[in-house]
């Protein structure tokens, strides 16, 4: 049953829940997903006059128009349907609350404008529906703070048991230089079982090493929560960009699930505090350029998950996939 649910949800999970691309089975079930049929894209604020091509393939205009009509229909009931956040597994919802509360406590958050048609996305595959919600902020320390939530439901509106969380914080390289890494956190829950959980501080330095300050802060405040029964192996692209304090695990039972929530809260808190301390440090032009290049390297490697891209293109088309990955998940700094 767990494998069936993972197969069902990996199409969305591989793209968004894990911007790290670390969904269980994701590297092995792409063929099976493609045989199950594509998802029909919908959006709570879909605008056909300036809308996104759902297919991205010539000769399929009729299908695109049909899906556009579905998108308009969904706009009418978007406000009445429950939010994804209200339907999440309790552990996933708890982690969202912890991350958001910590950021609000440590940072002065300002709204970050996302493309309207990507704020809430609704897709269909067979008899199930996937609801995706994106939240974003910015601060003096971070150019973009992004939380992405997804859940699957049956045609009757009942939970299918797959919930996904993705969170990433991109630093303002012009303000903090290379001193502040990229925070990333992903959580995948299948039928109440957390199958993949990762939290990481990805360095943006040429050497791809965390500063002594970050390493010492992690060891003092977060290391106590970093031991788990099942440690997972990183994919090849992850080894190129993730830091040496990366924790990628499959928590066993409720106690380890709670430990992971505490770990993420501790890492988020120390990250926000150290980033705040770095503002005003007046990094050199060389450091700013290196930090920008580091973020670009991170985004480019995240986007190199070819299996994820191919699956998304088969479901949504090349044009939509490229826009989603380049403007929402892995947008490069200017």
Question: What descriptive keywords fit this protein?
Answer:
334 residues; nine-stranded antiparallel beta sheet; 9 strands; disordered N terminus
Major sheet attributes: 9 strands, antiparallel
The amount of beta strand, in percent, is 15-25%
**Low-pLDDT residue spans:** 1-78
Based on CA inertia axes, which overall geometry fits? globular
DSSP strand count: 9
Helix content: 40-55%
Q: Total number of helical segments?
A: 13
Average pLDDT works out at 78
Give the N-to-C terminal Cα separation.
Answer: 45 Å
Structural class: alpha+beta
Order of helices and strands: HHEHHHEHEEEEHEEHHEHHHH
- Radius of gyration equals 19 Å
Which secondary structure elements does this structure contain, and how are they paired or packed?
Elements: H1 2-17, H2 30-35, E1 40-43, H3 61-77, H4 84-87, H5 90-106, E2 110-111, H6 116-119, E3 120-125, E4 128-138, E5 142-154, E6 159-171, H7 173-176, E7 182-190, E8 193-202, H8 212-221, H9 236-241, E9 247-249, H10 253-278, H11 285-302, H12 306-316, H13 318-329
Antiparallel strand pairs: 1-3, 2-4, 3-4, 4-5, 5-6, 6-7, 7-8, 8-9
Helix pairs in contact: 1-12, 5-10, 8-10, 12-13
Task: Give a verbal description of the structure.
The chain has 334 residues and is an alpha+beta fold. Strands 1, 2, 3, 4, 5, 6, 7, 8 and 9 form a nine-stranded antiparallel beta sheet that branches. The protein starts with a helix and ends in a 5-residue tail after the last helix. Helices cover 45% and strands 21% of the residues.
Quick structural overview:
The chain has 334 residues and is of the alpha+beta class. It contains 13 helices and 9 strands.
